[in-house]
Amino acid sequence: MSAEAVAPNTNGWEPKIVAFCCNWCSYGGADSAGMGRFQQPPSTRIIRVMCSGRIDPLHVFNAFLEGADAVLVTGCHIGDCHYVNGNDKTKIKYKFLENVAQELGIEKERLQLNWISASEGERFANFIRDVTAQIKKLGPSPLKPAGVV
Amino acid sequence: MSDNKGIEKPVESKVDQEEKRVGVFVCECGVNIGGVVNTKAVADYIGTLPGVKVTSVNKFTCSDSGQADIQKKIKEYNLNRVVVAACSPKTHEPTFRACIEQMGLNQYFLEFVNIRDHCSWIHMWEKEKATEKAKDLIRMGVERAKLLEPLQASEVPVIDKALVIGAGVAGMQSALDLADMGFQVYLVEKEPSIGGRMARFDKVFPTNDCSICILGPKMVEVARNKNIQIMSYSEVKAVEGYVGNFNVKIEHKPRYLDVAKCTGCAKCSEVCPVEVPYDFNEGFGTRKAIYVPFPQAVPLRAVLDMENCISCKACTKACESKAINYDMKPSYTDVNVGIIVGAVGFKTYDPEPRHDFGYGLYDNVITAMEFERLLNAAGPTGGHVVRPSDCKEPIKVGFVNCVGSRDKNTNIYCSGVCCMVTIKNAQLLKEKRPETDHTIMYMDIRTPFRGYEESYNRSRNLGVKFLRGRPVEVKEDPVTKNIKVRVEDTLANEIRNLEFDLIVLATGIVPHEGINQIQQLLKLSKAADGLLMEAHPKLKPVDTTIDGVFLAGVASGPKDIPYAVSQGSACAGRATILLKNKKAITEGITAVVDPDVCVGCGVCLPMCPFQAIKMDEKEHKANVVKALCKGCGTCVTACPTGALEQSHFKNKQVLAQIKNVFKFQEVAA
After folding, report:
1. What average pLDDT is seen over chain B?
2. CATH code of the domain in which A72 resides
3. Contacting residues of B for A42, CB less than 8 Å apart
4. Residues of the domain holding A67
5. In chain B, N or C terminus with fewer CB closer than 10 Å?
């Protein structure tokens, strides 16, 4: 669980961020970011689910335990959910996630929620840039197992 | 980790046991991926992963030869899982699903990895890191692919009736085409008359034919068509259901008169003492509180505007057919339809709040729509273009293009039609009164379609002046009320100080206030311009991400009339595929309950917005109705026992992806 083994040189260190995206909005937003060629740090690995409502605490904390430096929960803007109100439930669940993360000693920057529509490519890219910069400052996650990259 | 194995159907356990033989196909997408990601290195690395029997790099995996390569390798290596690493599943997943299905594989044995939009395109200058990221993404995909299970897409019946929202020219065309193909159509329009924006135009470019003269007969055709039921002055209030069976609640706003009795004689308007600005004429002139919307209105019936009514009841006395009813309440109709066409239109940009080019401050700065009504023979001035300050006919007219378009402060997109609107308006006035002098101040003139460039040349020949530049200062002369404009002529490279009698602003296209409601009712996405988004900008321009919902006209981006009409027809054509076949194919992804694990607590029930989970009272177990389940998976996360799973997004499948984001690296000694 020590950070030294992973990142002796923080300058060139690229954090690994797991982003959960819903099929209809934020995944589309990531696509739009690509279409608009909005450049982003190569830190993020996107996992697609149909709805942000599917993002399970199991997934989020497994990502941390496997070595994620940050986990992003993203979905449609409130009111725009493809499945009526899945994201409302995500919002409620997120409160729980935040509390557990705090208990585990995970800094709040490492777990973030954002609503991004399929057309908001620039917003998606800015989000990734901001989070990556914040995580670069913090360094590797305290939960990251040794030897994991 | 909750690995609930061996509980479901025997088919799946067989699938679990069989050896996973994965083929990975890496697409270069020309240079889109290949120019950044070292695809050869990626394929070499992926080839070393357990279970991967073959890797292949193609210039274009989606091409005929690329797909043939997949099919050949499925046969040669006896593959049972296929990973395609290419662009976005949102556009290309159906292509490759069909490709592997042809070879006898279940279509859900495909895993699609996005290494273009999510990798090469966003790390263009970090080739090595992009290559490493592509390796990670594909490794995640390979591990997920090994755990994929076969699913069956299901069929739902389609009610052969259609709902068209918006009776502008696009919506009317859609309704007519659908009706002519024999389907019952409900045509809902929020205004008291059908016709939309086109009914307000004076003449339409590039032919300059009278707008209402070509639209009017179409409106009558719609009214006469036996298969079309017009619901004017009505709005869609609720939409439930899904492709094939949408339950739609429509509100009919009270007209405060009996439509069946009203003859549209307008005697009520003659006696009404209340005058309010006439919205149909862009606020020029007045109408009464009870009025017939415009002479060609369909239905030709009066409407009472209760907000401005003073309840003097003069109209009640004047009405010979006793149609007026002050106590009318909104009424509602529920309809069941198989498909929905959204042709919800637009409004023009309002320059008032920002006072663009002095609009709202100076009387003699008007918009192109206002100019259009002044030009119209049925308009407030009988077709005489006058300036508002003194009602004199202007000689020097300045037109400013791109107001509320192509401007970082308002809207960055091009509205597409305003260049031609300005050119047409200048031509029309010049033809009417040759002594007038016109200057069009533009950024670029855009004339892309048939006859447009010719129309542009024609106005040049008529003597309309074109000045490339945007006014930087607009001031009113306090005495003459003329408008003084300071503008840089960027072609001559000099500053000009010009004086005009009248300034006309070519205001752009923006979404109207109702678009948010429609977007939320139909569960659509909005594009960056605030208008609704189509399923694919090129290949599915009238489809949406919601099956059975189509978009026509300016609702999905600026368009001219022929384009909007074509889209109306296109929607009818696309919708007919569903309406005629009377069935639609829906995704096989649904929630599934493991009855052995379910304790019947019922936590999942309120999670489902589609009421797809029913409690089996006898067994006391939750039960998913597959036809109703849309496969969002929200219930799955709520289940406290792990009895619910979402097929294709099972926990083990998602967790395999998560695990493979990372790899273990031996720390160098």
Report:
1. 94
2. 3.40.50.960
3. 119, 123, 126, 129-130, 132-133
4. 14-138
5. C
Which chain A residues are Cβ-neighbours of B114 within 8 angstroms?
Answer: 31, 46
How many angstroms separate the CA atoms of B224 and B94, rounded? 41
What is the pTM assigned to this prediction? 0.82
* Domain contains A54: yes
Helix (H, G, I), strand (E, B) or coil at A5: coil
Is the pLDDT assigned to residue B225 strictly greater than 70? yes
Residue entry with tokens 């995944």: A27
Q: What is the DSSP string of B311-325?
A: ---HHHHH-TT--B-
DSSP B359: B
B523 with A55: Cβ contact below 8 A: no
Indicate whether B440 pLDDT > 60.
yes
Please identify which residue in the block is written with the tokens 């036996």: B226
What's the token pair of residue B436?
């007038």
How many separate domains does chain A show?
1
Q: What would the two tokens of residue B452 be? A: 């447009």
Q: Do A51 and B633 touch (CB under 8 A)?
A: yes
- A1 located within any domain: no
Cross-chain Cβ contact A30/B117 below 8 Å: yes
The interface predicted TM-score (ipTM) is 0.93
Is the pLDDT confidence value at A7 over 80? no
Backbone angles phi, psi at B161, to 5 degrees: -130, 155
Q: Which of B661, B663, B665, B666 to mutate to test the interface with A (most CBs of A within 10 A)?
A: B661
Token digits for B278? Answer: 């006439």
Q: How far is the first Cα of chain B from the last one, in angstroms, to the nearest whole number?
A: 33
